[in-house]
Design brief:
Number of helices: 14
Radius of gyration: 22 Å
CATH topology of one domain: Rossmann fold
Distance between the termini: 10 Å
Number of strands: 17
CATH class of one domain: Alpha Beta
CATH architecture of one domain: 3-Layer(aba) Sandwich
Length: 366
């Protein structure tokens, strides 16, 4: 297409960038990547602040995956720094491991249980559920009401603006319960951070001569002006259709960055606050990045009902509304929807990459 592009991709986050790179390098197609923000990398965007500290502008992004194919793919564009994330929760005035493990319970209750005894401890407190349908069901059926109240209810209410019993089981099912002393937040085979940051990785991904990037641009301003054969849309699917069936609910976040004149402030990357303060958690960036610097930055996260869409709200009625939009999308011959917002799913970064790679395999060639 001498005077235009083969593909117009909306959104320069993981989904859009992966598809742009694959189409350019593997199919030799010309791609225009359009991004509303003033930077690439989506919510994974990182940059150096005024003091030279590398920060994640949209909250902590910790890469982890069990998919060798995803890790190998991204390894083309970055070297890695091994990193295993650890989180503490402030409960009853004590910082204890989360996910709940043997040390969590022994510390909170001044006990000296073994792993087998901890299993019995949980079983004695668990509430029987005929069916596991909600986020509350997941936790109380496993560890009982008291630990649910201490660790999950307050955090979930802040994060989602809803009671756990109003949310799908998938929300709390993401956080396991352990009977050993493993205090890693994730147990995936591959746990690492891009050595020079996410933005640097994205720059390499998009460096192909077949890719043109336009920032601070709403795709609707250029879609009719720039010839293209196929549209790949990674934004909110309801927004694409002008919210014609009603808006899909999302949760947003507001971030507060606080700089400290000391090299390290907290013992772990993240501290959760399930029951205290308006924020849900605070993260010390240098744990994640491994940067050496005499100052350190903490980022505090405040969930919001309004703002940029971050998290699809997992409830049956919301899923039904998405399916109605998906039916409309299926009728469009030259448009493909992909990504967390385009498919209204609560994906981790590696899951978005995997989805984009799979989409590439089935994407119409133009």
């Amino acid at each position: 297409m001498a005077d235009g592009f083969d593909y117009l991709i909306v959104g320069a986050g993981f989904a859009g960038a992966v598809l742009a790179e694959r189409l350019a390098s593997q199919r030799n197609r010309r791609v225009l990547l359009v991004e509303r923000r003033d930077h690439i990398a989506g919510n994974a965007y990182d940059e150096y602040d005024d003091n030279g500290v590398l920060v994640h502008r949209y909250g902590p992004h910790i890469f982890h995956t069990n998919a060798r194919s995803v890790f190998d793919y991204l390894s083309q564009f970055t070297a890695w720094r091994p990193y295993q994330h650890r989180v503490r929760a402030l409960v009853d005035g004590r910082l204890v491991p989360i996910p709940i493990n043997l040390d969590t319970v022994n510390t909170l209750y001044n006990l000296d249980l073994s792993s087998d005894e901890l299993e019995a401890f949980f079983a004695a407190r668990a509430e029987k559920r005929e069916r596991i349908e909600t986020s509350e069901d997941v936790v109380v059926a496993r560890v009982g009401r008291e630990l649910f109240e201490k660790f999950f209810r307050g955090y979930t209410r802040k994060q989602w603006g809803l009671e756990p019993k109003e949310l799908d089981a998938t929300v709390t099912a993401r956080v396991p319960v352990r009977t050993n002393r493993d205090d890693r937040y994730f147990t995936d085979v591959y746990q690492a951070m891009p050595l020079h940051g996410y933005t640097a990785m994205f720059r390499r991904m998009l460096a192909h001569p077949n890719i043109k990037v336009m920032l601070q641009t709403d795709y609707r301003e250029v879609a009719e002006l720039v010839p293209h054969k196929h549209l790949i849309y990674t934004g909110p699917i309801d927004e694409y259709f002008g919210h014609s069936l009603g808006p899909l609910p999302y949760r947003s976040l507001e971030f507060e960055f606080v700089t400290h004149d000391e090299a390290q402030v907290q013992e772990t990357g993240t501290i959760n606050y399930p029951n205290d303060h308006a924020y849900t958690r605070r993260t010390e960036m240098k744990h994640l990045t491994g940067q050496k610097h005499d100052r350190s930055v903490l980022v505090y996260e405040y969930p919001r009902a309004e703002g940029d869409p971050y998290y699809p709200v997992p409830r049956p009625e919301n899923r039904a509304l998405y399916e109605a939009y998906a039916a409309k999308a299926a009728e469009l011959e030259h448009v493909t929807f992909v990504g967390r917002l385009g498919t209204y799913r609560y994906y981790n970064m590696d899951q978005v990459v995997a989805q984009a790679l799979k989409t590439f395999e089935t994407l119409p060639d133009v």
